[in-house]
Amino acid sequence: MTTTPILRLRGIDKSFGAVQVLHDVSFDVRPGEVTALVGDNGAGKSTLVKCIGGIHPIDGGEYWFDGERVQVHSPREAAALGVEIVYQDLALCDNLDIVQNMFLGREKRRGLVLDDTTMEEMAARTLEGLSVRTVTSIRQQVSSLSGGQRQTVAIAKAVLWNSKVVVLDEPTAALGVAQTAQVLELVRRLADNGLAVVLISHNMNDVFAVSDRIAALYLGRMAAQVSTSDVTYSQVVELITSGRSGDLGLAHSNGVTA
Amino acid sequence: MTAAVVPEKPELPHGPGTPKKNGAAGAASLRSAARNYVDRVRGGELGALPAVLGLIVLCVFFAVLRPVFLSELNFANLLTQGAGSIAIAMGLVFVLLLGEIDLSAGYASGVCAAVLAILLTDHGWPWYGAAGAAILTGTVIGLVLGLLVAKVGIPSFVVTLAAFLGFQGIVLMLLKEGTNISIRDDTILAVANNNLPPALGWVLLAVSVGAYAAIQLRRSRNRRRRGLAPAPTALLAVRIGGLAALGAIAVHLLNQERSRNVIVDSLKGVPIVVPVIGVLLVAGTFLLQRTSFGLHIYAVGGNAEAARRAGINVAAIRTSAFVICSSLAAVGGIIAASRGNSVDPNTGGSNVLLLAVGAAVIGGTSLFGGRGRIVDAVLGGMVVAVIQNGMGLMGYSSGVKYAVTGSVLLVAAGVDALSRRRAVRR
């Protein structure tokens, strides 16, 4: 417990109609750390992320940010706090260049005219801060980029706005080996730069490679949130598949009776 | 996105944070700029290249077969013939950039021309009032079409197909079942029929080239001061010099006497429609390339979902593209009315829309959205005008002209589809 969490969720409930997707979920995210969010399909990872990002309003529970209790009702409010989410489909415009994509919807202007120079400078500085060296020109169109480079651009876009928490939804799912390594390196660098990073992943290798902490969801409940160094690969798999592993996890293995 | 195991490009010494020093020789940077361009073309971004090549080939072809094609008189005719559909095509570029279509732009221009003619001739309005009312009519038409597409959610193809039929009817009603209203207002008639005094042509050219050079050099100096890689000086020189040279040749040719009978009527100078189109070109290019609004048009055309998530009001962008399209169609209608000296039910009808869409697409604007520039409308419009004009000089019938223009449009759309596939495959 070296640092205090910047984002703290307590007792989050979320239902869609009659289906309760999240039960009493608590979740902490600390600056300077990569927190891996794992769980089987349908465990509620995406719902939790959308609650954090303000896309789904929470039904019950508390959302604490930087020591203050806040209400987040829209993506805009989440962004204003400094929470940025990079979804799996990246949401980039292929026909625009890297700088234009990074500033889309929040362009810098001088009067009526786009201030291209300032935007290019800021984009270059951000990419430099992330030690990104894989793009030849930040004025090239996104359509000419590889999958890993696109992911890099999407992450850089999220970092550009002095964000404090960056949530990455399966950033390596569609990538090859070399590109996965590069993106993971970038994820690690984000945390080393002092950001709080949430990494959603199905890939245990990725999780153990970069995360400081692992949070495992099981059927809509937080089974455990532990330090990566305290658990083994197979313990995490057990947490994902049955909600408990030895002393860790939910009191009842089916997780539904509580 | 594919999951192929492709290693990233090797690390390059010039990362984004280390701008290239401009100490290199101008020739080398020019060569690298040329190489970048070739790379882009190979990657499927053809831009205006096919239109420029096509224009050169067609001009050489017609010039060899019919030397009169190159006469000053014909050159001036070419410009005034193309102007109306170029204005409509410029508006269509905005709609095409969104991946939408406006089939009613031709008849919208007809409705606006009819409004112009009625106010001028039947009600005796001054030219500026009538022209303003005509353009306002276009704006309202665009607003209605845009709201139906963006807010109600009817596909633009259907909305504008319905409007295509509807406007045809409205033109007939406005013109009392097909009578022809002639236009006698000198100012409106001057637009497509009169020429600038030769000296004014030179002054306008000098001002345009000077302004272009000033803007380019200022931007370049600004970038260098901020430590960003500026465009190579040699490339700037080529661009500015090219514009000046082409402009000078055109103005010189147009300033020659082209009247067959000088005693009756002197005919020389740049046609007034040329600066009119020039102003629209500059304004449209500024809007699309230098403002947030323009960027958002490209963004919505490229990935509407990404634009929505970035906080862009997608419906407002869609609506305004239709507003701009129909307003420019109104300008096209005014030019057509001026050129025809009258407005009849065929103004803006028959093949006007198809030629305008053809102009935009031949110029390099993609039918799939997200790619295109205003200058495409001018280049493509010139290609269409050259085909129509050249084949007319060679004595071909309208039937052959239409068939050939149709084929060229098909080829242009094919190039667009293939280059897009090439860009996506990577």
TrEMBL record, chain A:
Keyword Nucleotide-binding applies: yes
Entries under Pfam families matching the protein: ABC_tran
Presence of keyword Cytoplasm: no
Keywords assigned by UniProt, alphabetized: ATP-binding, Nucleotide-binding
InterPro entries: AAA+_ATPase (IPR003593), ABC_carbohydrate_import_ATPase (IPR050107), ABC_transporter-like_ATP-bd (IPR003439), P-loop_NTPase (IPR027417)
One GO molecular-function entry: ATP hydrolysis activity
Domain ABC transporter intervals: 7-244
Protein name: Sugar ABC transporter ATP-binding protein
Organism: Streptomyces apricus
Automatic annotation (TrEMBL), chain B:
Alphabetical list of InterPro entries matching this protein: ABC_transp_permease
Keywords from the UniProt entry: Cell inner membrane, Cell membrane, Membrane, Sugar transport, Transmembrane, Transmembrane helix, Transport
A Pfam family assignment: BPD_transp_2
Topology of the protein relative to the lipid bilayer: Multi-pass membrane protein
GO cellular component, one term: plasma membrane
Subcellular location: Cell membrane
Region: Disordered, residue numbers: 1-25
Keyword Cell inner membrane attached: yes
Transmembrane segments annotated in the record for this chain: 46-69, 75-98, 105-121, 127-150, 157-175, 195-215, 236-254, 269-288, 315-337, 349-370, 377-396, 402-419
GO molecular function: transmembrane transporter activity
Role description: Part of the binding-protein-dependent transport system for D-xylose. Probably responsible for the translocation of the substrate across the membrane.
Name the UniProt record assigns to this protein: Xylose transport system permease protein XylH
